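Suppose a classmate hands you a notebook page containing two proteins, each written out with its sequence and a corresponding row of structure tokens. How would you begin to make sense of it? This section walks through that situation. The first entry is reproduced here exactly as it would appear on such a page.
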Amino acid sequence: MNTLVYGAGNTLVSDEGFGVHLIDYLRRYWTFPEEVELLDGGTLGIMTGYRVEEADRLILVDVIDADGYPGEIRRYGLQELLLDRLPVKLSPHQIGIQEMLSLSALRGRLPQSAILFGVIPASYAAGIALSPPLAGVLPAVADLVVAELERQGHRLISLRDAGAPALRVC
């Protein structure tokens, strides 16, 4: 079974780029088997729908617009991700991800399972660095994604001891 890890966001708008930063972080700190694909979906949304439809399982990472504190992590399942069930709106590029999943459902090509790890942002200011609260939770979200992949039976190899450049924090 193949799993797609999809990071969404605009890296020019600080915390909005969280999902993309997460994909970069995962690539720096783990190696993945060939049945796991990491996708920097950026702001492409619906344009990447075919990649979602090819996956058996989907793990999305994005910021969410919800009540709570900056850096708070939320987890949503597939049914909650469909347009009429998600209690919060996703970030400004949301017009792609939820609609993409709804279209896939209509076409009968929805992944067997899907999870969203959503994080409440602190800043939508122009800039390429994450705010301190989101930079601080990036490793925790990565650990959640890795744990989910391992729960699904994928074998990952940690490269954390190999070191990597630090994230830029605004």
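The notebook's second entry, a different protein, reads as follows.
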Amino acid sequence: MPLFQNAQFYISAHDLRDLPMAAGPEVAFAGRSNSGKSSAINTLSNRTRLAFVSKTPGRTQLINFFALDGERYLVDLPGYGYADVPERIRLHWRSVLSAYLQYRTSLVGLVLIMDIRRPLTDLDSQMLDWFLPTGKPVHILLTKSDKLNRQQASLALRQVKQALGERYPGATAQLFSSPKHQGIEEAEQVINGWFTRSQEEKAPDLKGRSGAEEALTGVKAPAQGGEAGDDH
């Protein structure tokens, strides 16, 4: 059975205070607007509309939590990088996403979605800069690989892996195509490995934490700075 087969919507959060208390390990999905993030989530879950595929970039501005089995969670982060988003929204999500990625203790790994034709943009690098210092793993899905022929896709993957090795050695990458259902097993194996390792480790003790920390389930004071945005 696919890892996300039984995923069910759990809750949405607009601000850090809206985040649910951790009930188990979370894997987050992030990506630029129109990178194919929602389609990738739907493909992995073998569903057509688990994640909303917006025809208007910049519309989805919520952190959406999906329960997998009552103990593990998939977290769909707002897409980023859409130019027409108002500055106030851009600043809001810069703060929320940076804090969530850097300090959410129940977050065990990040799946970063990139269009294979436009990988490792400046904003993608910002996400990596926020997250990799936590020591947690990042796996990149190079989506829309069906838009390239096999030779072009293989070359793009090698180039991305080389760039990661030079700048972000803690990240891994693979080809992925939602229409072709390519790369599903590889992605599931990576993500399931994160969940397995997290469950083997001792859960953080949340006793005595402040209300603000509890809102982020152990997340400390939100960090300011960086750049992020808006939609799928």
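A careful reader of the second entry would note: Confidence is low (pLDDT under 50) at residues 53-59, 203-212, 218-232.
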